[in-house]
Amino acid sequence: MHICFRGSALPVLLAALTLPASALSAQGEDQPNPNIIVNGGLAKGPEIKGVITARSGDRLKLATADGASTIVAVTEATRITGAGGQTAEALPNGLPVTVKTLQSDGGLVASRISFRKGDLKTAIMIRNATAQKFEEQTAATEALRGRMGDIDKYNVKATTNVHFDTGRTDLSEADKAELCSTASSAGSTDNALLLVVGYTDSVGSDDYNQVLSEKRANRVINYLQQACGWKPYRMLTPTGMAKADPLAPNDTPEGKAQNRRVAVNVLVSKSVDGL
């Protein structure tokens, strides 16, 4: 099967299929009030263009092209446009959508969800193909876990750092090549896992830097999985460390440039290292 994608949704489309619904509850975001009644009294919220990555009950999680995530509530009043008879519950993960929202005390509520019919067909095709390989993927994951008898104790075999401009999450062409080279090298070791950690310099508030470091880590993970072919089940949970653990002092421009980074660590459990 050959599938071609168009539009800005591509960088987050395939990564969306690896996220469980439980990811919704781990974000620490405000939870929408399940008793919200959508009516003309609610303030107009932002229009969100993104990809459905997870769902839990009446809530959808959307990932946008810049790596951010937003949770919106869906009610009986939410209009679904794009394919006749489609309901919010039937919209698959990986579907690019445009969501018009209303602002309530409990968070954002979707007033309208729209998508292209071709995008829906593509997302369903990917979902079905993924389902066919589910047993194979599960077996590989369990086999890997079985070899990681002491999973909380690792040897760091290598670390690759990619760097960013101030306030940005963009990857340079050189960084992209370096990431794929790292993935290729790590892939030759059966037991290797990747731990991706994002950092910032000291400029900006703690809250801003925390979000920025997480976005940088997610951008690197997306590229490793989508462009470099690194398997999701060999990736540890990404971490954003903001301005912690600087490589250099933050009192010079050169030092700050070194600290605006994502570290890709190649790990092997001490229990299997050398086997």
Structural features, described:
The protein has 275 residues and is α/β, with parallel strands linked by helices. It contains six helices and ten strands; from the N terminus they run H-E-E-E-E-E-E-H-H-E-H-E-H-E-H-E. Strands 1-2-3-6-5 form a five-stranded mixed β-barrel. Strands 7-10-8-9 form a four-stranded mixed beta sheet. The two termini are 37 Å apart.
- Overall pLDDT, averaged? 77
Strand content: 25-35%
Supply the helix-strand structural class.
alpha/beta
Q: What general form does the structure show?
A: globular
Chain-wise SSE layout:
Elements: H1 10-13, E1 43-56, E2 59-63, E3 69-73, E4 79-81, E5 96-104, E6 107-114, H2 117-132, H3 134-147, E7 154-163, H4 173-187, E8 193-198, H5 206-226, E9 239-240, H6 253-259, E10 261-269
Parallel strand pairs: 3-6, 4-6, 8-9
Antiparallel strand pairs: 1-2, 1-5, 2-3, 5-6, 7-10, 8-10
Based on the model shown, name its key terms.
60s Ribosomal Protein L30, Chain: A, 6 helices, OB fold (Dihydrolipoamide Acetyltransferase, E2P), disordered N terminus, 2 domains, globular, 4-stranded mixed beta sheet, alpha/beta, 275 residues, 5-stranded mixed barrel, single chain
Write a brief structural summary.
The protein is α/β, with parallel strands linked by helices and 275 residues long. The chain has helices at residues 10-13, 117-132, 134-147, 173-187, 206-226, 253-259; strands at residues 43-56, 59-63, 69-73, 79-81, 96-104, 107-114, 154-163, 193-198, 239-240, 261-269. It has 2 domains: 10-123, Nucleic acid-binding proteins (OB fold (Dihydrolipoamide Acetyltransferase, E2P), Beta Barrel); 151-269, OmpA-like domain (60s Ribosomal Protein L30, Chain: A, 2-Layer Sandwich).
